[in-house]
Specification:
Strand order of the largest sheet: 4-3-7-6-5-8
Structural class: alpha+beta
Helix content: 10-25%
Radius of gyration: 16 Å
């Protein structure tokens, strides 16, 4: 099986489980390994990750909708993101960059990044995000991308998160593989 640039990277335990499962779904197509299709992905295989997993629908160069946001994500943000336009929830100064990244994911890029998540106390904690695309394109030109957030249990934090700073938080360090 061909290896992704992320395959040799150190990842959080949960992100490693997700990457290994996603990699196991890739199949040879005569030009290497093709991206897995959304229908090949069985959420039960990563059941312990679902509360911190996003599923996005991406229309390259046009838009991003959050199809599913795990329960821990919704509770941490104090916001239900499922069914919402993700770019509308993104600070205006960061929307173009976010659309560029999700367009790259929809075209096959994978990403591992670290972000500082701000609390209302001014304190921060570090999370690792892993973005993995699916290869099937729907009739409307969209595709799906999963993003998993691996970090400290937000329930262990005694304070609320600073929502605008989370949704517009730039990457501290990122491995981006188109």
């Amino acid at each position: 099986m061909a290896r992704l640039p992320l395959a040799g990277q150190r990842l959080g335990t949960k992100n490693r489980l997700l990457l290994d499962y996603w990699q196991s779904l890739r199949q040879a197509d005569g030009h290497g390994l093709k991206l897995p299709s959304r229908s090949d992905f069985n959420p039960r295989r990563v059941q312990g990750l679902l509360s911190t997993l996003f599923l996005f629908q991406v229309w390259p160069d046009e838009g991003v909708a959050c199809r599913v946001a795990g329960t821990t994500i919704a509770r941490t943000l104090g916001l239900e993101m499922t069914g919402k336009n993700y770019l509308d929830m993104t600070p205006a100064h960061f929307r173009g960059e976010r659309l560029r990244r999700f367009t790259a994911y929809a075209r096959g890029a994978v990403s591992r990044s670290y972000r500082k998540i701000g609390l209302d106390t001014g304190e921060h904690y570090l999370v690792e995000e892993l973005a993995l695309p699916f290869g099937d394109v729907r009739e409307d030109g969209s595709t799906h991308v999963i993003v998993h957030v691996d970090g400290p249990d937000p329930d262990a934090q005694a304070h609320a998160v600073d929502l605008p700073r989370i949704l517009g938080a730039p990457a501290i360090h990122e491995v981006f593989a188109p």
